[in-house]
């Protein structure tokens, strides 16, 4: 009987690009076989199935997802029928320490957290301090280190280096102190490694049956053991950073994010208890700030540098766009450091960044839980309690939307010529088609900040150095909730001659 069921099921999924479903174990073997290549496997399956397919795990488990990359479905789920699609309790469990914070919260709790974070991130003093901090770190840390590496013609991991820069900026802006990870001695980065573990294990938890990873957690074995250690490292780091700030700065300068929460004369009891001590929720909220800032900016920077290094025409176009700014500077020691305010509106720079985020979205897979039965624009019925996975990675690879060259890095697709022939403007692409910053009421609150920071950092690197990758073929996405690189980004840099 089992054999018959097997034959029938295999016949049904005769498309070799779709996962094969087996009795008892469902599609798990196909997923495990393609574990190291899961995003491309999903993209191929979605393309072969007309942009939607059902992913089924063992029948006794809750692994039963509708996987989609259809922009019409995305608009429906994230905007038109927003209240019917929530993050859900299972996601809160999958993300462990982040459970209950803005990335997993729903309803009133989410709205209140979003309002607070929006107020914090739009304070002019914070924005000024962010720009200053970014510029100082690039001028005093990144450029000297790259110059040193250039002089020695040393091979180094660019992803690691940019990750150090972003971690320093994040800790300064969030907690008001500098961990000096970007230093020639390359100190170990336990916090960064712990953040990476959080995201990698979350990806496994998405796919594995809940009972499976819960048992591993209970037994404290495998990846779950690693995660428990990483959570302890993060929790301690954030709790100590908050204590340090509270002890040192009772009046508060307001230039960092934590000051906003701890110096409130009428503190929210969710954040500070009656003795004005930080609550568990405040600590987890600040782990979330670390994740929201460090992870996406580190990933966005690395993929952008990779794309520019492998597409010299785009590198040249950025330098051409920067040349008029450099021309207005008094000549100094030859090194030019760009301010976020100078680069954030440059059209080609933005196009280069968006094109990189299109192909390598920092959140390659989104997850939503259905509140009440509904019909998606694609014609698929979804039931209350079921889960939808949205492959944003596959959305960039839709030929109908982005054209036959959708897999190519081509910033020019973002440009439209001005009618008076005076150059280009950035083409508007609806956010349910280009979902790198999410779409609808939960769109990213840090988009403008990140564009300013990422463009200025990349402008400084590209203007002052030539980047040569060691082997661009080894650069692949790692399986994680955040799209980082699997083997790093091994590179060498050369100072650019001033008259180039
Ligand atoms: C290139 C950089 C960035 C990219 C591509 C990016 C992208 C995203 C995406 C895709 C989401 C949705 C995540 C989800 O719901 O699963 C998101 C949410 C969010 N982002 Fe960003 N982000 C970036 C930088 C930042 C920065 C620097 C901040 C500042 C702290 C920030 C703050 C947030 C917050 C608070 C949310 C939650 C919004 C909500 O659920 O209502 N992001 N971001």
Automatic annotation (TrEMBL):
Which Gene3D superfamilies would you find in this protein's record?
Cytochrome P450 (1.10.630.10)
Q: What does the UniProt keyword field contain? A: Heme, Iron, Membrane, Metal-binding, Monooxygenase, Oxidoreductase, Signal, Transmembrane, Transmembrane helix
InterPro entries associated with the record:
Cyt_P450, Cyt_P450_CS, Cyt_P450_E_grp-I, Cyt_P450_sf
| An example Gene Ontology molecular-function term | monooxygenase activity
Asked if the record carries the keyword Cell wall biogenesis/degradation, the reply is no
Query: Which residues are involved in binding heme?
Result: 444
Required cofactor(s): heme
Q: Name one GO biological process term.
A: lipid metabolic process
**Cross-referenced PANTHER family, in alphabetical order?**
CYTOCHROME P450 (PTHR24296)
- Family in the record: Belongs to the cytochrome P450 family.
User: What's the protein name?
Assistant: Cytochrome P450
């Amino acid at each position: 009987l089992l054999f018959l069921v097997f034959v029938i099921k295999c016949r049904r999924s005769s498309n070799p690009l779709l996962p094969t479903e087996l009795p008892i174990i469902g599609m798990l073997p196909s997923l495990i076989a393609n574990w190291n290549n899961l995003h491309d496997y999903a993209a191929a399956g979605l393309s072969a199935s007309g942009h939607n397919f059902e992913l089924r795990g063992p029948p006794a488990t809750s692994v039963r997802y509708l996987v989609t990359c259809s922009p019409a479905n995305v608009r429906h789920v994230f905007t038109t029928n927003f209240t019917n699609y929530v993050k859900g309790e299972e996601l809160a469990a999958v993300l462990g320490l982040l459970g209950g914070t803005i990335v997993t919260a729903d309803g009133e709790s989410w709205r209140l957290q979003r309002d607070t974070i929006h107020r914090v991130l739009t304070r002019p003093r914070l924005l000024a301090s962010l720009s200053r901090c970014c510029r100082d770190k690039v001028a005093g840390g990144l450029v000297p280190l790259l110059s040193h590496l250039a002089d020695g013609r040393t091979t180094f991991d660019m992803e690691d280096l940019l990750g150090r820069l972003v971690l320093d900026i994040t800790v300064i802006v969030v907690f008001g102190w500098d961990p000096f990870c970007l230093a020639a001695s390359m100190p170990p980065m336990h916090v960064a490694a712990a953040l990476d573990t959080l995201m990698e294990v979350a990806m496994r938890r998405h796919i594995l049956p809940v009972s499976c990873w819960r048992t591993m957690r209970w037994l404290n074995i495998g990846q779950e053991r690693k995660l428990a250690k990483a959570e302890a490292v993060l929790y301690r780091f954030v709790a100590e950073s908050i204590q340090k700030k509270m002890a040192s700065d009772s009046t508060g300068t307001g230039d960092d994010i934590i000051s906003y929460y701890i110096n409130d004369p009428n503190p929210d009891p969710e954040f500070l208890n009656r003795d004005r001590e930080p609550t568990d929720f405040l600590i987890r909220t600040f782990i979330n700030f670390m994740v929201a800032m460090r992870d996406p900016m580190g990933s966005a920077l690395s993929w952008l540098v990779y794309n520019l290094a492998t597409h010299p025409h785009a590198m040249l176009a950025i330098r051409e766009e920067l040349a008029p700014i450099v021309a207005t500077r008094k000549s100094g020691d030859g090194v030019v450091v760009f301010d976020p305010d100078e680069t954030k509106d440059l059209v080609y720079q933005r196009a280069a960044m968006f094109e990189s985020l299109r192909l390598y979205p920092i959140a390659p897979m989104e997850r939503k839980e259905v509140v009440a039965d509904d019909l998606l624009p694609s014609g698929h019925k979804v039931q209350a309690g079921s889960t939808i996975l949205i492959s944003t990675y596959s959305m960039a690879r839709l030929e109908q939307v982005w054209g036959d060259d959708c897999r190519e890095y081509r910033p020019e697709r973002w440009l439209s010529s001005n009618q008076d022939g005076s150059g280009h403007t950035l083409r508007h692409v609806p956010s349910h088609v280009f979902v790198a910053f999410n779409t609808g009421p939960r769109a990213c609150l840090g988009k403008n900040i990140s564009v300013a920071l990422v463009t200025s950092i990349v402008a400084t690197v590209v203007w002052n150095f030539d980047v040569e990758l060691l082997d661009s073929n080894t650069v692949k996405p790692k399986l994680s909730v955040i799209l980082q690189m699997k083997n790093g980004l091994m590179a060498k840099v050369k100072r650019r001659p001033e008259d180039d």
